[in-house]
## 1
Amino acid sequence: MAALATLLGAVGLKLPDPWTFGLVAGALACGISALPSAKARPGLRPLHVLLTVHFSVLSRVFFRADDLTLARAMARKVIEWDGLGVRDRLFEIQGLRTWLKQFPALAWAEPLAGYGILILLVGGFALHYVPQSALATIRDRLLPKVPAVVIGMSFAVLLGVTSLLLSGPRANIYFAF
């Protein structure tokens, strides 16, 4: 496994130090394969979710890139730490701040506009840890009591945020087909 990862680092990603990449990737692969299933040990479920999310995000680099050279450069940026930390406006939903300025009643939410994507990511990730029984309770007991107007407004806000997300520099690849 480590040899295959070293070859990927040297040839595929053209890393300056493919041996370290290969050893780390090989050790991770061996560690992941040795993990017991989440059904056998429910306490390991967060680790399984974390690994799945990271694998999924890294694999989407190849969908986002226009060609293999760009995918290679993007993958290198993901795995190489440059020490600069989080960039300005990294979590900002483009256009959300401008849209919120049109509605004075929503002025309180403008500072949150810079963290819109982070809020969505953390909320979606946290949803994985909500027990199925709690979700079933919400669906069966609480949702029928919510007025239709509130549900309609929620869908309208969701549609608005989705349209803002899709108006960014490049829409999701699945909309191109």
Note: The mean pLDDT is 78.
## 2
Amino acid sequence: MIARPRTSLARSLLAAQLLWANAAVAVGGTHMVDDSGSLPYDAPLKLTWRSPAPRHGVPDNSLIGSTLLRVRLNVSPWLQHNGRIYLVLPVQPPGDLLATWTTQGHLLPGSLRPGGRTLVYSGRLTTPFIEDQLQLSLAVDAARLQQATRLNFHFEIDED
């Protein structure tokens, strides 16, 4: 008879620990960052041929282009926390492309292919917004480009 209450107490404590562990996981994890304040400075990206003529008989179907973006990330939900922010490019048409960017220093420069994510910030979030300018360059194989396409980048944060 005494063992039964202890077992119930042990089960209750285990259940409480599991709930606590699940709550801790819910606080951390990966979350989308509100980047609705981000805007292009330039007109829409226009692609041009990388090479107007083939070299050594090998055609170059690469199209390239660049644009300047103003990035404004609302990180207020994670204020005074440590986190890692990533630029994400989900898999989408036109398939294989390469995005590279340079920054003004608040975010990290990098490169990205569809289906990947690249670290652009790591550290303590001490202001509600992170703002920077990205010089974004794209290279894509013209053979895979069927029509004008909108690329859907977004930012994610992994909270420590």
Note: Helices lie at 3-27.
